[in-house]
Amino acid sequence: MATGSTLKFVGIDQAYPAKRDADARNKDFQEIADRFAVPKAEEQAGRCSQCGVPYCSVHCPLHNHIPDWLRLTAEGRLREAYELSNATSTMPEICGRICPQDRLCEGNCVIEFSGHGAVTIGSVEKFITDTAWEEGWVEPLVPGPARGQSIGVIGAGPAGLSAAEYLRTFGYEVHVYDRHDRAGGLLTYGIPSFKLEKPVVMRRVERLKAGGIVFHEGFEVGRDATMDELRSRHDALLVATGVYKARAIKAPGIGSEGVVEALDYLIASNRKSFGDTVPAWDGGSLNAQGKHVVVIGGGDTAMDCVRTAIRQGAASVKCLYRRDRANMPGSQREVANAEEEGAEFVWLSAPEAFEAAVEGRVSGVRATRMRLGAPDASGRRTPEPDPGNEMVLQADLVVKALGFDPEDLPAMFGAPELGVNRWGTIRVDNKTMMTSLEGVFAAGDIVRGASLVVWAIRDGRDVSDRMHAWLKAKAARERVAA
């Protein structure tokens, strides 16, 4: 119910936390905006219209209680606001930083439709939980009463971490297996620090470790153990690997030195932020310093690469995308940030070939202009070549950021009986979220395809409930059999 602390959207303008000047922020990897001060957070939260049907919550994959914790924030009841925010999300401060709010909650805010500018929901969400960490309100993970059953989670990304947390609170012994040397998946290695500083992720991981979840880092299923071996160790398994196989470009010169994958490039940069030794970065092959960089793609990963190259001191950075700005899949806010920081966008253009200079090193991208035809199945207009409009872009480093597909998990895991669909994602029962293997569940991008972190968190929450129900039934059957 609305109070005098809310419904202030007519008299108070929309405001976001101030961004640092582009000329300053494009020289480091710190987050680009500060957090709201308390009075400003309360003021912005007070703009909420407290809708009878809160479209912000409806369009949030987690169905967060957004109007309720906005009202509590406006009233200065920050601890209660945090507890309500935390009730539906295992990572609210991470979602507040990296969710594309312009396409989700804020993009569906009623006062945005009225012309007053959406409530700055993501910034308030970040403020609430960062404050909770500082004030000690984030409580330790407390395991439920021991059930005598064990669960293995393959993948330490947002889906796997969320499921592991919920399953631990149910009382299960939980082991998380991940091929990287740090947990977090793309949160740790795929998203640059200027969007998500790494201590924000690591404190979440440390909380899970302190709660008794056992992490097996640097562990590859198929190399260190087969899926059958893991099934014999645990009462149930969850596959939450995400999708990591880069989509390919078929064009002459694609194998030239200096044409690299987006994830390799971002992982190298993020490892440097941890202080790791990264030979490919130190040697220059995954470092943009002094180079003319062309990034191919129009999603959020492409924006991450563009903005990373700027911070590494590239001589120039261009983003080549086959559609126009209105039809790109990435966040418009990210495009605006990249433009402010010095990136150039070459819209309606697609690579035709990669030109190489001496010793097979890339020297340019030959591209053709595109035009937009009829809409495709997604509603976006299909790009088609516009003959006679070719160009060459100078390039010493080309980053391919066209999205990700699933790896061949049945082959990698030594589990040919693991069912996948024609796209390579794992096939699950829609009700139980179980795969074709009894007691093996799957969630996140490896089921739905490359998607948003917030959807992975939602899937982790959902699959923990399905696994809990199945394991309780399994324990009941075993008691009867005994």
TrEMBL record:
Domain FAD/NAD(P)-binding: 151-460
Domain Dihydroprymidine dehydrogenase: 25-136
Keywords: 4Fe-4S, Iron, Iron-sulfur, Metal-binding, Oxidoreductase
Cross-referenced InterPro entries: DPD_II, FAD/NAD-bd_sf, FAD/NAD-binding_dom, GltD-like, Helical_ferredxn
Nucleotidyltransferase keyword on record: no
Keyword Lipoprotein: no
Pfam families: Fer4_20 (PF14691), Pyr_redox_2 (PF07992)
Superkingdom, taxonomy of origin: Bacteria
Entries under Gene3D superfamilies matching the protein: Alpha-helical ferredoxin (1.10.1060.10), FAD/NAD(P)-binding domain (3.50.50.60), NAD(P)-binding Rossmann-like Domain (3.40.50.720)
NCBIfam families, per the entry: gltD_gamma_fam (TIGR01318)
Protein name per the record: NAD(P)-dependent oxidoreductase
